[in-house]
Each structure stands twice: as C-alpha cells, then as structure tokens.
Amino acid sequence: MKKNVKLISLILIALTLVCMFLPIARFEDHSADSLSEDIAKQEEKLKRAQDKYDRYVSGGKDQESIDKQKVQVDKEQKKLDDLIAQQNNSDGAKVDALSYSLLPGKLPSQLELDQQVINNYKLYDANFGGFYLCIWLAFFCLVATAALEIATGDKYSSKLYTIASFTNLIAILLLVYVVIRISAFPIKLPFSNAIISTVVMLPLLILPVITLFLNTLNQQGTKKAMVYVLCIFLCTLSILPFWIMIVNSTRSSQQIQQGVSLIPGSYFGYNWQVLQSKNFDLKTGFINSAIIAFGATLLSVYFSALTAYGLTVYRFKGRNFAVAVVMGIIMIPAQITSTGFYIFMYQLGWVNSYLPLIIPAIAAASTVFFFKQYLEANFQISLVEAGRIDGAGEFRIYNTIIMPIMVPAMATMGIMSVIASWNDYLRPLMLLTNPNMKTLPMMVKELRGDIYRTEFGSIYLGLTMTALPLLLVYFAFSKYIIAGVALGGVKE
Q: How far apart are CA 53 and CA 68, in angstroms?
C-alpha cells in the first residue's frame, strides 16, 4: 500500500474512533405526553364509573349499591384532578433530552424498556450485555486495523493488509448492527425512543467503508479475498432459506413458533405421521407433478428452440411482426387469461386432464425470446449453409447441429420451466378436481385446512418433499449452464 494511502486510511480510522465518543442518539423527554395519555385514560375510567352510577340510579338499584358506586366515582374524579394538577405544575419544567454516545458509557440509567412492546412483538432482546459487547468489539477491531497497517512498516504488499481489511469489515458490520439496535430499543415513557443523529451516524458508518475500499483497491490479494468473502456470503444467503425449511421439517409447531433454529430437531417421524394422517400421498403427488412438469418442459424447450431457430435463420415477410407478437405476449400477465383459458378447456372437454397443463407449454413466448437472443449471440449461419451443402434436411440440421449448440440455453430454460410447472398451483387447482390427480403444491396447501390446529412441522416437511426434486434437477443440469457457455462460439 502506498504511503499516502496508508496515511489517509489511518486518519479515517482515527475519525471513526472519535465518532464513537460523540453523541449519536438522544432520548427526548415526553413527560407532558405521558401525563396527557394518563389523563385520557383516567377520563375514560371516570366516564365508565359515572355511566354505571347513572344506570344504578335510573334502574332503581338499592341504595347501598348506589352509595358504593358514588364513592367509586369520587375516587376516579380525585385521581383525575390530581393528574390535571400535576400537569399544570409540570408546565415549563421539561427535563432535558438524554444524550448517548457509544463510548465510553452505557445507556442512561433513567431509561426503561417498554416490556409490553417486547412481549407483543418478541423482536427485541433486552440483553444490554450483548449490545455493549458489540460496541467494544467494533472499537477493538478498528484499533486492530490501524495497528496492523502500522505494523507493515514500509512494505507495499503484506498479508497484514488482508487481515486488517477483515477486521475493518467486521467493525463495519458491528457498527451497522449497533446503530440499528439503538433505534430499535422500545423506550418507556416519559422518554422517547432513540433519535439518531445523522451528523454522527453517517461518518461513523461511511468512514470505515472508505477505509476498506482503499485497502481493497490498493492490494490485489485483499481484493481477491474480499471477492471470496462476498461470494461466500451470497452463497450462504441463497442456501439459508432451504436449510431453515429442512430444519423446520424436523421440529414441532411449538418450536417453530418460538423462533428460528439452524439445528435439526427430533420430530421428523411425528411430522411424517401427521402427513400420512392427512392423506398426503407423496407417491401420487410426485407422479402427477412429474408428468405435468417434465411433459410441459420437453414441449416448451424443444418447440421454443425450434421457433427461435426459425425466427433467427429464415428471412421472410412478417418476420419482424412475428417477433413483435412474441414480445407482446410476454407483456400479458397469465392471470388475465385464466378465466378464458378455463372456459376454453371446459369446452374442449379437457377438465380433469393433464393435457391443458402440458400442451399449451408449446407456445412459451419468454422461452422463445431467450433462445432467439442466445442464437443471435452464439450462432453462425455458415453452419446451416454447410449442412445444406452436405445434403442434410432442415430438421436434421436443427436436431444434429443447432441443438448441441443450444444445450446451455436449453438447460437453463429447462430448469426454469420445470420449476414453474412443478410449483404451479393456480391452473391445476382450476382444472383438476379428481383427488387422484392432485399435484404436490395442491396437497401441501390442503395441510393448512385443519381448523383446530395447524401443524407447521408437517407443512415444512411437505414443502421439503416438494422442493427436493427441483434441487435434484438443478444439480443435474447446472453443469451444462457453466461448462457450455462458450460451446456455440465458432470463428469464421
């Protein structure tokens, strides 16, 4: 790292540390609002007591009950008078707002968390120890970043820069968490929730980001390490929902409602028994979904590729208009045509049949457009001309020359088509009423039909069984997407 860049980096870290000692949040005094709220509640209580007293009098209640209620009215009136007097005496005596800096101290002792909000939403953890620990960890990570950069001396390239970048990244994540955490604390009246100071917050978060950018920009090894970290992070985000779904399929409903867990439970057998008790026929649902999904995918991929080949190779009148029609069809939402589609299938007598769920896949406008774009980028017309010179027919040219070139695109759209057809719920629901023809998404939806108790564990198990074939399809064909990207590149 160049000397001037290192100096700038150290200055930015020092400024970030200074920002940690500046007031980043304030908690304003809302005593008047608190008293107004208490007065409004007390007025409501007094009104209810007075109404009850009036009912006793007008209804001919015995004198003893009327006297007791009168005493209750007087008590509520006295409480209201005391609150009003307290409000009048507190005018002009407003307490200054409490300020808070991340360092060196803790939250002001006058603050109290609103336990009712915590109990209602269950999103807040009142463990201040973890909050303070994150603050000090962020502080020491920034100090460690500066120390590592200083320890490199005059070296322009060192592994210490990479370690410093990682400690800097950890500090950024901790600071972001801390700032979000402060604003999320539900503070009980008379003080308000934290009001974050933008003047302090922006430098506190932006300066270490600039430092990380400078370190990464000037060190090739650090740049590569950061790319790996980003890829691992994105991969974890992609896998995490599937893992949570699989874990929840082994947990009970009570455990799922208590919170997220990454550790599998011991209720897999119980959830499986619940599925069987609710007539969740996995074999039948799998066969029905497979017939629809793979049948529709084969027709969609083959004929869409054939159509794209024709629109790319052949020059004919109306070609541009045909392409425009395909583009226009893409713009029409499928939900708009659902009613007309059902009426048409009913008139054809195709209700309770797989045909309306498979045959229309031949006309897949978005797939045609994708294949056409792929051919225009990876296809050479000389291949077709060479095939014609050798005496090959048009379909033989397409099947033996063009399709191998389109393997990456066909694998991509095949995966997309399988996923779309497998997860389709609306069209099978409209057309299939025979219980023996239900697909897996329809069976999973019916698991929520129990009016007495919803077994979330069994629902997640059904979703896992539904998603498992899709994962297998992806892993089986993903290699064609990666390895065959340059397959169609041919030089003239």
A: 9
Q: Are residues 326 and 365 in contact, defined by beta-carbon separation less than 8 angstroms? A: yes
pLDDT in tens, 128-143: 788 889 999 999 999 9
Q: Measured between alpha carbons, how far is 288 from 450 in angstroms, rounded to an integer?
A: 24
Chain length of the chain: 492
End-to-end CA distance of the chain: 46
What is d(CA 425, CA 294) in angstroms, rounded to the nearest whole number? Answer: 16
The per-residue pLDDT for 492 is 42
Is 270 within 8 Å of 252 (Cβ atoms)? yes
Supply the pLDDT for residue 13: 93
List of the chain residues with pLDDT < 50: 93, 484-492
Measured between alpha carbons, how far is 378 from 395 in angstroms, rounded to an integer?
19
Q: What is the pTM of this model?
A: 0.63
Q: What is the pLDDT of residue 34?
A: 60
- Is 200:23 a contact under the CB 8 Å cutoff? yes
Q: Map residue 385 onto helix, strand or coil.
A: helix
CA distance 356 to 354: 6
Q: Specify the pLDDT at position 95.
A: 53
Q: What is the pLDDT of residues 267-290, one digit of tens each?
A: 888 888 888 887 788 888 889 999
Alpha carbon distance 452, 278 (integer Å) = 13
Q: Which amino acid is at 112?
A: E
pLDDT recorded at residue 487: 46
For the sheet containing 23-27, what is the strand order?
A: 98-101, 23-27, 195-196
Structure tokens at 123: 């999103």
How is residue 199 written in tokens? Answer: 């003047």
Query: Any idea which fold 278-483 has?
Result: MetI-like fold (1.10.3720)
Q: Which of 374, 399, 394 is nearest to 384 (CA)?
A: 394
Q: Alpha-carbon distance 414 to 425, whole Å?
A: 19
Contact (Cβ atoms closer than 8 angstroms) between residue 372 and residue 311: yes
